[in-house]
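Predict the 3D structure for this chain.
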Amino acid sequence: MGKRYAIVGGDAAGMSAATQIRRVDPQGEIVVWEKEGVISYAQCGLPYYVGGVVSAPERLLARTADEFRERYRIDVRLHHEVLAIDPQGKRVRILRRDTGEEIEEGYDVLLLATGSAAVLPPWEGIDLPGVFPLKTLADAERLVAWLSRRNPKRVVIVGGGYIGLEAAEALVHRGLSVTVVDVAPQLIPSFDRPIAELVRQELERHGVEVRLEERVRGFSGDSAGVREVLLEGGSLAADLVLVAVGVRPVSELARAAGIELGPRGAVLVDEYLRTSAPDVYAAGDCATHFHRIKNAPDYIPLGTTANKQGRIAGANMAGAQIPFAGVLGTAIVKVFDLAIARTGLGEEECRTSGRTCETVAIQARPVSHYYPGAEDALTLRITFDLKTRALLGGQIAGRRGVDKRIDVLATALYAGLTIDELQALDLAYAPPFNGVWDPLQQASTVAQKKA
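Done. Predicted structure below.
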């Protein structure tokens, strides 16, 4: 008989691993246990479904369970919740949620792909009708149903990170009055404050009220729904509340099995995505992610990383020896007409890393100065090491051309380029797309003068 591969979790990392195992081992038995009733969908698309840009939840599905069964011979079992794993005995205890029956099954190699969960603080009234997270497809469907049935007017979003910002845009497009509340002194804290300030201005330009350094105490209402968000210094009226204060790795199974954990409680993995338990791998939002600039395990849960880690873990489970190259924390988010993006280390991260860092900031045109759109200036921030001149990170905000430049910068970081090598790159030029000196190269010139 062939190997028995077991996967806990049927989203990005889990199904990427499953299909890769099948490619490497055509004869192996593959079983996937997924506690929910849906697999392999685009969580990053949820705000766009809520806002009506994506017309139906089915459009977010990559493949159905039946497609995996028929095309890849993967035994996908929905509504199966893994309760415990025994790495020594290579056994798994599972609850069939549709029947309530508990069963045990064995495995040869196991992957933990349990993902992440929305952080829901123990606030008073967190369970009131009309208070929602936005992490799963089921969350989005419940939220859209509430919007359709109740026709709320005033929404408060607690949290100014990626999901909070995207949800703010989505709900404004649906005609709601939106307030964003965050305990931090700035929005989107993974960005430098000058970029975060541009985001605040863009939100306010579209009628979103932003309340920073406001601590939430809870929510008040009744069986009909939420009515107020309770703050330390007062309250806000609300017909709908979205709690978007972050996510945490779902690592309870690993913890209970004695498997070593890393930053933020994520399952610690080595370069081949092996855990501290024999024949147990982990990938995606439940696992650690090696950071190429920090040269250490980190926790930066992103869909791109989950798919890559899943693919590599699957190949390695089937006998390959492929290292995971690591992450830079590259990310981009759209906030109305503004795009912001980052990669590598920000200014504050550099300051606390012990490196001799310098950050330069410039404003530059995304196209030639005489071409329409030249007035839409890009804001660029590049961080580098004063001693080695190596690039360490960068952040960009603007209305056009942000995506291509953050990807160039991420590639430069991946290759370990210096500010001098960044300036020397042969980048595409035509007036509708660029000036003769790309904004990245202009920033590198400023950096050279400071080095």
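The mean pLDDT is 96.
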